[in-house]
Design a protein that fits this description.
Elements lengths: L2 H17 L6 H15 L3 H11 L6 H14 L3 H14 L4 H14 L2 H14 L6 H14 L2 H13 L4 H15 L2 H14 L4 H13 L3 H14 L4 H13 L3 H12 L6 H13 L3 H14 L4 H4 L13 H4 L13 E5 L5 H9 L7 E6 L4 H10 L5 E5 L2 H7 L5 E6 L6 H14 E9 L14 H11 L4 E5 L7 E5 L3
Parallel strand pairs: 1-2, 1-4, 2-3, 4-5
Antiparallel strand pairs: 5-7, 6-7
Helix pairs in contact: 1-2, 1-4, 2-3, 4-5, 5-6, 6-7, 8-9, 9-10, 10-11, 11-12, 12-13, 13-14, 14-15, 15-16, 16-17, 20-21, 22-23, 23-24
Length: about 500
């Protein structure tokens, strides 16, 4: 007798049970007939179950539909099994075994979210259904899905059942940090340190919380504990530097940065912070050397080889973001780049070294006036013949340029008023070739206390007026640039 015949019979019996009133002999006859059918198929254990149900004084629809669902599940008719188990729940919504069966079926179907939801319903009714390891495992799964309340509940139950306190407290601490519940997260990490004061990660996490709460003295103490226990962990130095920068403790910044440089791995942000601190101490030459090292770590070896002199670095962190999107311009004949806002020329020199490598490529620089160090650095670049410096009113100079001539515009004007930026964007747009790229470096910059200083508003106002003429290359995040391509006139 085929599986299809059995499933068809199951559906017929399910409909029959739905029609009975619960008294008389109809449901008992139906149970007995189904038992006989299963016996004829050699399924003796299931046949006994149904014959036993026929002997019950009252119809138990929750059990009946559950038994029908289990047969369908065994026959791999999982969708029908789900439907029958759901029907059983209508008659007994507190049956943890039904929720557990549904969880197993959804697991077979690869529906992880439903599987977890039904397991959670089952253990909510019967907490003893899971052991310590099962609670810990399902807690991690809920955490991955972003269902933090369920994750916390299951982590706490695993801890209560004897799961290692430290592992659970780390998990709970991370969840509470992600929720912004700093008080609960702090308690988790303090619990860890009560168990084991040598947990470097707990000291670091606790220090990070104190830093967010502006309790700088406590943060410093925790970071120093971390360094003592894990001297090769670089990110604790970063946060310690952040505190010293806030407090303008430049000697401490220099000392911590020098400690990191001896760890082996090179971090560009360390050299930038070191350069900033050295500049604040008046050690300008040393600061410039540190900024060169930051650029070298970013892959710009020419910065060191040509001995460029920069007193600050607001550019090198952008290199990994923008460079992949400019490779089509490397060695391309007649590449033409516009740059607004140059200061001492760090971005200008990088463009000359890395992008404007074709002999006839050109860089047009616009600024109100040019720093003497820019002129010196352009001489060191040995590419001054490629550069056109246009000093004066930026909008007037933009109006004087021919349309549709630039392949790239790198915009970093020091004026941030949104109306001014809106006008600048419109003027630059006229100058771009179709396919040209614009880098808006100040897109995420704003002042909450001065709403008129909002480059994003000016840029968005213009771009929203020409929605079909551009596409996003890189979304802006925080201080990172916003990059778009002109796709039509």
């Amino acid at each position: 007798m085929s599986s299809n015949y059995l499933i068809t019979s199951i559906l017929e019996y399910a409909a029959a049970f739905a029609d009975v009133e619960g008294d008389g002999q109809d449901w008992q006859i139906a149970c007995r007939n189904l038992g006989n059918l299963l016996q004829s198929m050699g399924r003796f254990e299931e046949a006994i179950n149904w014959n036993s149900l026929a002997l019950e004084p009252q119809l138990n629809l929750a059990e009946v539909y559950s038994q029908l669902a289990r047969i369908c599940a065994q026959e791999k008719s999982l969708e029908i099994a789900i439907e029958l188990f759901e029907t059983a729940l209508k008659y007994n919504p507190n049956a943890e075994n039904i929720y557990a069966n549904l969880a197993q079926i959804y697991g077979q179907l690869g529906n992880k979210e439903s599987e977890l939801d039904y397991w959670y319903k089952a253990i909510s009714i019967n907490p003893n259904l899971f052991d310590t390891q099962a609670y810990y495992k399902i807690a991690q799964a809920f955490k991955q899905q972003g269902k933090l309340e369920q994750a916390i509940d299951c982590f706490q139950k695993s801890e209560g059942l004897g799961k290692e306190v430290i592992a659970v407290s780390y998990e709970l601490g991370e969840i509470n940090l992600n929720r912004g519940d700093l008080a609960s997260a702090k308690t988790c990490y303090q619990n860890i340190l009560e168990k084991d004061p040598n947990q470097a990660q707990a000291h670091y996490k606790l220090g990070s919380i104190f830093l967010r709460q502006k309790q700088l003295k406590s943060a410093i103490e925790e970071f120093q504990h971390t360094i003592k226990l894990a001297p090769n962990f670089p990110w604790v130095y970063r946060d310690l530097i952040q505190i010293f920068v806030q407090r303008e403790q430049w000697d401490e910044v220099i000392a911590v940065c020098n400690s990191i440089t001896h760890l082996g791995e090179k971090f560009p942000w360390v050299y930038v912070q070191l350069g900033n601190a050295l500049r604040e101490k008046g050690r300008i030459t040393n600061a410039a050397l540190s900024f060169q090292k930051a650029c070298v770590v970013r892959g710009w070896q020419e910065c060191w080889d040509k001995d460029y002199f920069f007193e600050q670095d607001n550019f090198s962190y952008r290199i990994p973001l923008i460079e992949p999107h400019l490779q089509h311009l490397v060695n391309q004949e007649s590449t033409n780049i516009l740059e607004i806002g140059n200061y001492q020329g760090m971005s200008s020199c990088w463009l000359l070294d890395k992008i404007l490598t074709a002999p006839d490529s050109k860089l047009t620089c616009l600024d109100r006036e040019f720093d003497s160090k820019l002129q010196d650095n352009l001489l060191k670049a040995k590419a001054k013949h490629k550069v056109n410096l246009m000093a004066g009113d930026i909008h007037e100079n933009l109006n004087s340029l021919s349309p549709n001539i630039f392949d790239l515009a790198n915009l970093q004007d020091r004026r941030k008023q949104w109306e001014y930026v809106n006008q600048s964007t419109a003027l630059v747009w006229r100058l771009m070739k179709v396919g040209g790229i614009i880098i808006f470096n100040d897109y995420g910059w704003h002042r909450n206390d001065m709403p008129e200083l909002n480059p994003k508003k000016g840029i968005d106002n213009f771009l929203n007026s020409i929605p079909s003429q551009w596409e996003i290359i890189v979304e802006s995040s925080g201080s990172l640039p916003f990059i778009v391509k002109k796709i039509s006139e």
